[in-house]
Amino acid sequence: MLWAIGDIHGYSLSLRRLLDRIAPEPEDTVVTLGDYIDRGPDTRGVLERLIQLQKECHYVPLRGNHEAMLLAIWLRHQVLGKKRPFSFRKFLRRQWTYWTVGKYRAETIRFPEWVLLGGRQTLASYGPNVWQIEQIPTDHLEFLQQTRLYYETPDAIFTHAAYLPELPMEEQPSEALLFHRLRESIPAPHFSGKKVYVGHSAQRQGEILDVGHLMCIDTFLYGGGWLTAIEVTSGQILQIDAGGRMRGG
After folding, report:
1. What is the pTM of this model?
2. Is the pLDDT of residue 214 over 90?
3. In this structure, are residues 245 and 18 in contact, taking their beta carbons and an 8 Å threshold?
């Protein structure tokens, strides 16, 4: 079996219940489409469960824009040895850009902005005295570093956000793979003819977006929707809410 799972955003109970239903075998493949962290109450529990999943099946963790932002800040801190001085004016300018354009570039985001985008909940999941990314356990940060930008099979493509239809996957820009919003535009079919499975663009009605050549399975878990999984070969769909309840019983 080949399963794809949409944006989790710190909801460990939903993830655990979903994986219990999937019950992956060693020969199965599970692809998570990114955004494991931020916004929800238990990023720590999500990452612990995903690290364990690596021992249970062929697990393919993709990188989401939230992981990209956290990693960019963490790596920048390592290179600089200290944080850059905080500029309130630049902070307000970037906030305005985010709320009007709808995205940050991972290479320019700063720690206070990430905190406002859900990083506060991520840090809180590690305990009341955790205030910095550097306090997150090393194995969790290393897991995030090992995430991929895409996964491709003979029949399907998986990315976090989108793709450029005319380019092979190894030539795709990270901006398209991590940050493109489907409300801006839905890309044309990929030249390979493969169906593409994405997350990132939260479907606020809680329903999957399926336009034939592309399927978005971010069904707004953190906003009262569902964590969605689809078995790609059969089309079977499983959905679980933030309280761990299965849709349709």
Report:
1. 0.91
2. yes
3. no
